[in-house]
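Open question from group meeting: does this chain pack into something compact, or does most of it stay loose? Before anyone orders reagents, we agreed to write out a predicted structure and look at it together. Recording both the input and the output here so the notebook holds the full record.
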Amino acid sequence: MENQSNETKKPQDQPAAPAPKDSVTAEMQKVVAAMILELKKVIVGKDQVIKKVLMVILAGGHILLEDVPGVGKTTLALGLSKVMNLDYKRMQFTPDTMASDITGFSIYNKETGGLDYKPGAALCNLFLADEINRTSAKTQAALLEVMEEGGVTVDGVTHKAPEPFVCIATQNPLGSAGTQKLPDSQMDRFMARLSMGYPDIESQVNIVKQRQTSDPIETVRPLVSAPHIKAMKRAVQLVKMSDEIIEYAAALCEKTRTAQAVEQGVSPRAVLALVQMAKAGALLAGRSYAIPQDVKDVFIDVCAHRLILTARAKIRKETEEKVLQDILDQVKPPAVLEGKVK
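Structure tokens returned:
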């Protein structure tokens, strides 16, 4: 009887076999693994942070690194520029930094009688805005257009940034003297907020040993270039995501707008960012399709900096991360079989 039952079982009742890796996705996974290995020469013990930074870049977003000084935020940005062979510029934001330092400015040319445009620091592939919260709101706002549109407008003329364009901004979450808090509109422009965190004892020992005789940043090799990055970004766009998983991502974000501890939930832009980050995570995992776990893995990174908690929640010392974790526990993921896509 048992054999007969197995024979009559319908094919759709059988669990779906994992979809095979296609050659393009497998090659992308190898390239990213090589990039992570190269970046580990300068960033020790932070593999997950490196991975998520690469996910944001491949998803076409920008990164906010919020952490205490000296944990390697600038080193990570410099290492990325070298391994990706990108045009890199860094600006240390201070109270006297002007908007024109970022966007550029026009200067009168007496020979032609016209205006010549002098490019600003933001017109590069990888722009590091160091301590972005230490400059004025006007200067912070100068980054909005280039982060969203990939260009700057000066004297009515738009100048496009090279493709790809990535902004990595850093800020110290503890220091308050002389800082200007980023407005909600600008926080929403960052696809993810990440934290480096302190390295463990073993990693600290390795960091010291590495730097006894030379600077490890000099050993980082360029592995890809701008055309490769653009191709990988296109591959992320082609990662398949079923309607059930898209609805799951939307449901998670909708829950942030009704949670009691939240005064202002995440925007529709956050839903788009969550989907793109999940697809990038799938690509890094060697899959051409997304699964619910891809969404769960990046939900807090994408949404925490977009939440505004109520005064009562702050008094109770609740955190954005705790609220979002509760939402993950409450919203049931779809029962999508591995490899099932639409």
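Observations to bring back to the group:
Confidence is low (pLDDT under 50) at residues 1-20.
The chain is about 45% helix and 15% strand.
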